[in-house]
Amino acid sequence: MPSKTPSGSGKAPAGIRSTKDEAALKAKKKAAGKDGESAVPPKDGDVDMAEADAEPEEEKVDPVVQTTADIKSNFALLDRAVVLFDARFTLRALRSISSIRKRLTPDILARVIAETFPASSAPAKQLLAALGQDNLPLGRRPHGSSPSAEMEIDTPAAAATPPKSGAGTASPSAATTTKKETIPEIDIFLGILVQVYLYDSKQQQRGFEFSRVLTERIHALNRRTLDSLSAKVHFYYSLFSEQLAPLPPSPQSPVISIRPSLLAALRTAVLRKDVDTQATVIVLLLRNYLSTSHIAQADLLVSHTQFPENAANNQVARFLYYLGRIRAIQLNYTEAHEHLTAATRKAPSSPSAVGFSQTATKLLLVVELLMGDIPERAVFRQPTLEQALLPYFKLVQAVRVGNLEDFETTIADYTDSTFRKDGTYSLILRLRQNVIKTGIRMMSLSYSRISLRDICIRLHLGSEESAEYIVAKAIRDGVIEATLDREHGYMKSKEVGDVYATREPGEAFHDRIRACLALHDESVKAMRFPMNQHRLELKNAQEAREREREMAKEIQDGDLDEDDLGGEFEGM
């Protein structure tokens, strides 16, 4: 007799039933996958493996299409900058260049230019000529003219795929600018991208010629909305000239030929009160003069121009560095130390600006040594500066001890590899007297009386007469507190007083307070607010006062009382 199930029916057990149902469900899913549709929807928490494998493929975006969309998304910002006459939108477009420049190729730039400008656009032809894409047609998508097979395949996808929301809020700029004349700001922005590509690809001669044409076009347009873009164009124009042979400080270097153009741009920027171009061109001119060792002309430029107070922080840091370099060469070490200290404090903290921080710190260390001060050891322990400052660390060690032999050995080891390359070799040669003075100071602190012969031996001097002359000069300059006995041939040191009884701690404290207050004032000046916001606040305040007068007048006339106001009158 066959056994029954626990429920009394002839059905199979639950375990066997579930196995059969699962097998049937898998068969249905497999059949539905072949037909292209799902017959049984998955339960909550279940994931179809075919869909999970297909999702990453759908999310993939062609880098050419993405880069093109990122470039075109800045056109909307430039349009808003022109309509609202607000330079903040232009600065946002310029800041996006750092993320785009690594993906720039001549095919991508030519594609954007062809899709943006009409067929009769002369500036677009200049841009294509700089990229070597002269034969590319304008006003339509480059299907057959593109040398890249991927661009021919991806062109329809670029037309159907809109830019992502993070790329820009207003995306109709790409569709509208192809049918009508584009604004000059878009033309100059694409010209800057062409400059960036030519500079990164080491095409210095072509970049120099293209930059000259671009600066002439900016001067002919005469639009105030091009101020921020003009500053960037002149920046790359100067960089291209520095890379062409013969290199500075040769008198035939191209950096000398661009000086009239930079001076004309500076004059125009001052008349228009163009802060961005004015600050950039002043820094470029100082860099230009210093590259050819024209220190007097650089000093005249500083004395006859006024650097704008509300300039960008990066330009202020560069200006302070070049100003400190000029003052150091002119033997004005106190002012040079102030300017270089401010430059290192204003230096950007991003990894891309480590080079500027290293260069400014190197010059600052040399100036401190020339002033007779010894830099702190913590400066050399910074991770971003430790390796670059190794030769200067050995130099500081030689100066601190007053060992003339180690000082000359350090100079011989790092002259060609570091000091000449950094432009500090001529200043370091001045440190020889400081090394001798430091050695004399250390001996005056260690010995109450020491003979001139011992000084001569310790400092590796040629004769006792030279040692006597150096000691006498150190006493006259106030380096040491001592007396010189020429008859018996020795130097006698005076007792050292308490340094806290002097004015030196108070002066150092005063310098720190002044630096903090100057930083606070500059931070307040650098704050930016929306345009005409104060007018809106004044209008709202005026309307509130008028309402208060009307309500007070109605109360006086007896038309209203405090109960009618609902308690709001007390709050006002």
Automatic annotation (TrEMBL):
Residues 317-498 form the PCI domain. One of its GO terms (cellular component) is proteasome regulatory particle, lid subcomplex. Belongs to the proteasome subunit S3 family. GO terms for molecular function: enzyme regulator activity. It comes from Ophiostoma piceae (strain UAMH 11346). Residues 162-177 have a biased composition (Low complexity). Residues 1-60, 135-178, 542-572 are annotated as: Disordered. Pfam families: PCI, Rpn3_C, TPR_PSMD3_N. The keyword Metal-binding does not apply. Residues 47-60, 557-572 have a biased composition (Acidic residues). Keywords: Proteasome. This is 26s proteasome non-atpase regulatory subunit 3. One of its GO terms (biological process) is regulation of protein catabolic process. Residues 542-556 have a biased composition (Basic and acidic residues). The keyword Isomerase does not apply.
